[in-house]
């Protein structure tokens, strides 16, 4: 299977076919409106504004699986993001990224780029401590650990990198830029 075989449910019905993005660099991210990482919307929008014309597409998939931090409707999520962060990239329908009802796209993404740790620093330690309380074997599983996990897909459709929410957004941006 290829990334281009997958689609994502769109707000209001329909599907966003990833095959429509052949030849583009994609940044696929599960988002939340009430999370400590929600300010990632600001650098994501800056990346989109700077690089969309160069071939960057951001696939924003709101998800409420992590501490209920995305409680609103698709419309409320969109309104929050456009008013608070002035986002212009499209958002997809709120969906699950882990478990029995996870999007098939996320099953594929996790098979291509598993969890490799949170890195270093206070945010990484905080996330590790939080997840250890829930599951002492969390690091051995490819599951999405929290909101704002990012997958980068190159122009050839390869899932080339996974960034955990604790990653510095400047690092994410630099990596994406290197593919454009």
Structure explained in plain terms:
The structure is a single chain. The radius of gyration is 15 Å and the shape is globular. The model has no long low-confidence stretch (mean pLDDT 96). The strands form 2 sheets. Strands 4-3-5-6 form a 4-stranded mixed sheet, covered by helices on one side. The protein has one domain: Glutaredoxin (3-Layer(aba) Sandwich), CATH 3.40.30. Helix 1 (41-51) packs parallel to helix 5. The two termini are 24 Å apart. By secondary structure, the chain is α+β, with helices and mostly antiparallel strands. Helices cover 31% and strands 16% of the residues. The longest helix is centred in the last third of the chain and has 13 residues, at 122-134.
Short description:
One of its GO terms (molecular function) is peroxidase activity. The chain is of the alpha+beta class.
Task: Record keyword descriptors for this entry.
alpha+beta; Glutaredoxin; globular; 180 residues
Largest sheet: 4 strands, mixed
Number of domains: 1
Rg for CA atoms: 15 Å
How are the strands of the largest sheet arranged? 4-3-5-6
CATH superfamily: Glutaredoxin
Considering DSSP H and I runs of 4 or more, what fraction of the residues is helical? 25-40%
- Mean pLDDT over all positions: 96
The CATH class assignment is: Alpha Beta
Q: Which spans of ≥5 residues are poorly predicted at pLDDT below 50?
A: none
What is the 3D form?
globular
Distance between the termini: 24 Å
